Amino acid sequence: MERISPPLTGDERETLRAYLDYHRATLAWKCEGLDDEQLRRVASPPSTLSLLGLVRHMAEVERHWFRRVLDGEDLPHLWSDDHDFQAAYDASGSTRDEAFAAWEDQVAHSRRIEAAAGSLDVTVHVPGWEKEASLRLLMLHLIHEYARHNGHADFLREAVDGTTGA
Q: Given a cut of 80, is residue 7 above it in pLDDT?
């Protein structure tokens, strides 16, 4: 996934798409060059948080917001029979291939669903919030989610091999 800076003069939708893709690519970049063991390494036990856990969690997040909420699909969680988003963080039995395949698949679905939406003003009922929300807000929510977790990824990567960088 190529990491391209968002446009400085793009329209609103183009800018939101670009920021979301920038943060997706940042997560992939933080994992680049690491083997399965390094990707599963936790930096702060007893937390199970690892880079691979973040990839799995973001697959769940993409699946939830775009497929379940925006597209209305009735789908189970990828790594939990109890609808637990936190279960994805425990990547102790996971591999790069498994986690990245799931995440990349969910990102592809998200891009297709977002592109098919008529405008950023499309609204959907968000069950957990018990309110209507626009595609605009959902995209901003995902940008926020990625940005927050990419901060975690910075620390996790540094703990694995000392690599730092924005």
A: yes
First to last CA, the chain: 16
**Residue pair 150/23 in contact by the 8 Å Cβ criterion:** yes
Average pLDDT rounded to a whole number, residues 11-32: 96
Answer yes or no: is pLDDT of 140 > 90: yes
**Has residue 6 been placed in a domain?**
no
User: Based on the number of CB atoms within 10 Å of its own CB, is 36 exposed (0-12), middle (13-18) or buried (19 or more)?
Assistant: middle
- Which residues on neighbouring strands pair with residue 133, listed in sequence order? 124
Q: How many domains does the chain divide into?
A: 1
- Residue 2 inside a domain? The answer is no
5 domain residue, yes or no: no
Distance CA 157, CA 166 (A): 11
- Asked if 19 contacts 26 with a C-beta cutoff of 8 angstroms, the reply is no
Q: pLDDT tens across 107-136, in order?
A: 999 999 999 999 999 999 998 899 999 999
Gap between the Cα atoms of 133 and 126, Å rounded: 7
